[in-house]
Amino acid sequence: MSLNSSPYARSTAGVAAMVGVGHTDYRPDYDAVRAGKKPFDSYGYAAVALQRALDDAGIDRADVDGLIVSPQISLERSSELFGINPRWGGQADAVQGILTAVMAIRAGLASVVALAFGNDQRSAKVQYGGPQAMGGGANLSYVFHAPMGLTSQGALYALMWQRHMELTGATEADLGEVSVAQRAWASHNPHAIMRKPLNLEGYLASPYICEPLHLNDYCLINDGGVAFIVMESGLARAKSKKPPVYIKAVARADLHNQSSTLYPRLIDFYHSGHDIVSREVYETAGLGPEDIDALMVYDSFSCHIPFVLEGFGFCGTGEAGRFMRETGIGPGGGLPVNTSGGHLSESYMQGWNHQVEAVRQLRGEAGLNVPDCRNVQFVSDFVGKVYSIIYGVDP
Amino acid sequence: MNYPVLYSPYDAAMWDSIAHDAMAIQQCTECGTFRYPPGASCPSCLSVGFDWTRLSGRANALSWATFHRQYLPAYPAPHTVVAARLEEGPILIAGIDAAEKPGLQLDVALKVITRDHPDGYKVPWFTLAARR
Which of A157, A218, A282, A298 is catalytic? Predict the structure, then answer.
């Protein structure tokens, strides 16, 4: 027996399926918050989304035996307000939550897991930079360098993209492909907050926030909630109202060596984690990058996309700009990416809305459907953790 | 003197060294590896033993970014920060004067100096090693 038998992800294959998704009304809530109103607190956003996810799945709260909530809300208070007494539960972000749900289902500790995210970050004025930046206790890089003038998560990505440009000859216009393509997708998505068309000239003319990143490289900050129902695959086949969307593989690899001083970002661009995770999920699912019909990438900042395209083998190192221009990541492109508009243009639901869009694409329920969509991949790589999920219409 | 926010019991000694224009970081007594920011254990060998070793001050630029929006009272926009590899191994992130930004390029040689912070302490700062 080896301590490192690979791929670990094989144990996640076909265990569970997404059978229900739901979310709040992003744009109306965004407008209300900008008008000084507070439609809900974080629990309320999560409750609205959960109700819709249960309806979408066609199941009752009483059928839920596992509950995972996002870090903004407590498991105990959420359970109380949702009227659910789970047999098993926890608190996690979107992708760790899905991985944990698969683990619990495989272990037989739960068979129907509800996952709920609620975040009043806009109305509560949560800061991601400056003296009150959140998350500093867990992530020293967010706050440690403030005496020297480095703050804001955007600045960490600005440093990455500047170095990438220096190393590969990539340009700001290359990066602009991301924001332009995602806005084009968002223009077809009735739920998206930002739907006004954006072209490359408009992108380049938008102000720098932390140079070389422009305003349109930054994600939105808005209130909202998202929920999913993850069900054991056999049960999903028997009970799901809509065709189940199977979780074919989930994998994770962490990179924390000198992370407070950005070594995994600046020296590695997280690629050593991309290598491990891509091998895990592709071997497990029996697929490769060429089989992926749509790609969802956690996009707190636009430059996640070129780094993931290069790290997961969709193109070679330094080729993302050309790939995005020639193959295309927007509507009609060879590799549709963040087809809801993502965090940049749909809604900043911290990776939760990407899972909703993966499900909708595989069901043919998206704002703009990718033709013959059978496999959708999700990737995230932030705070030193690389994750990927492959979803499919087959287990 | 004042200190910035201290994130570990090891931080104050480092800020004291910066206040004396002689920035020192922890060096493992078991394996000699340098570590920064200050912390309890050596990532290379897990030893908790360390000495404070003064930096040579030599570094090479890895990347840079310019804030066009003010986030911190001490740093009106535009403010440029540089991430540079210290000769000792760790990466140091610090500011650089706007006049020196045009001299930044990949791997360009930098020198670590210090600057007064308006909150009453000194901070490390970069300057181009070879002034044009």
Answer: A298
Q: Which residues contact A227 (CB under 8 A, 6 or more apart)?
A: A20, A21, A22, A23, A46, A49, A50, A52, A53, A114, A115, A116, A117
CA–CA dist A80, A71 (Å, integer): 16
Dist CA B117 CA B132 (whole Å) = 26
B117 has a pLDDT exceeding 50? yes
Residue A267 CA, chain-centre distance (Å), reads 24
Find the mean pLDDT for residues B51-57.
98
A51 Ramachandran zone, left/alpha/beta (phi>0; psi -120 to 50): alpha
- For tokens 């407590």, the residue is A74
Token duo for residue A282: 């592709």
R_g over Cα of chain A: 20
Distance CA A219, CA A192 (A): 13
Give the Cα separation of A65 and B129 in Å (integer).
63
**What pTM was estimated for this model as a whole?**
0.96
Query: Which listed residue (A30, A142, A282, A348) is catalytic?
Result: A348
Q: Return the sign of the alpha-carbon dihedral for residues B34, B118, A209, B110.
A: negative
A&B contacts, CB < 8 Å: 102
Q: Is residue A1 pLDDT above 50, yes or no?
A: no
| Closest by Cβ to A159, choosing from B63, B68, B71 | B63
Contact A148 B36 (CB under 8 A): no
pLDDT higher than threshold 60 for residue A2: no
Alpha helices by DSSP H, A4-129: 26-34, 42-57, 75-82, 94-106
The residue-averaged pLDDT of A381-387 equals: 94
Q: Report the range of poorest mean pLDDT among A124-133, A168-177, B117-126.
A: A124-133
CA of residue A157 relative to chain centroid, distance: 17
Q: Count CB atoms within 10 A of the CB of residue B111.
A: 16
Q: What is d(CA A91, CA A72) in angstroms, rounded to the nearest whole number?
A: 9
Residues of A in contact with B71 (CB under 8 A): 129-130, 151-152
> What does the pLDDT average to over B8-19?
98
Mean pLDDT of A143-163: 95
8 Å CB contact between A341 and A185: yes
| Mean of pLDDT over chain A | 95
A130 band by pLDDT with thresholds 50, 70 and 90: confident
